[in-house]
Task: structure prediction
Amino acid sequence: MFPSAITFPSSDGKTTIHGTVWTPEGQPRGILQVMHGVTEHMGRYQDFAAYFTGLGYVVCGISAAGHGESLYDGRMRGHFDSWAHVVADNLTMSAQMKAQYSSPALPFYMIGFSMGSFVLRTIILEAGEQKPADGYFLLGTGTQPVFLLRMIHRMMQKECTACGPEACTDRVQAFAFANYNQKIKNPESRADWLLADRAERDKYLSDPLVPEKISAGLFGEMLSGMIFCCDRKNRADVREPVYLLSGQEDPVGDFGKGITKTEALLKKQGFSQVSSVLFPHMRHDILHESGHEDVYETIRKALETEQSGTGGH
Result:
């Protein structure tokens, strides 16, 4: 595996976006673009990249604005100004990778985790007749009633007006994270809803690039993206395969029930090939949870099926 750092100007006009491309030895067989979750960064995907470069895939991804090293003027981590800019920056990464591996064109797949899953869903729904990728993996995604999301969004707008968009108030953290953590029995930390695996949870909590809080502005923008994704009136003709992968004990996916609802929603929105897999004893972050090798294997098998020409659900 050969990692290389990349940078490019964000569409926000002020942030330098930092990303990583991991290349395999020998001729690559495909490209996997990863879109990370809120408060994360691409450095957390080193093990994932090692596994899939070992299978011959190029793995790539950016740290979204306000995450990892993608900052401007020394500003805080945990804040960005616009959902549209986050979406556009990931599309810039896609375009660069497709241009680099254009002759011959390699199979291209997109993987979105948590916040990244909604970034990816936005990309797919906004693509129109274009085809962003040959297949999609949505990890740790879900759906919520649009009226509820709009209500919380209005609250965040008021929070931004009262305290400023970069404010990290208790109300923001309560709606963004604490509500999920309350659904875990006897939580030991603020991140128990993310991971049952204590060692991985401690690694996440001690990561200096992981902010403890997010801003009212970021949460409001993320809610706007979720509203767009969860509105059944937003439709697209999506014929590529879509895989929903979630932990059985993930509160974001409502402990499996939300994944069933998400699958139904996507089909109403025009996604013709959708399937889902629930992983027992796993919470939200299934790529770092104990037993994550099963998730890797599920993705590998799906890629093998699609590339063998026997895809379909």
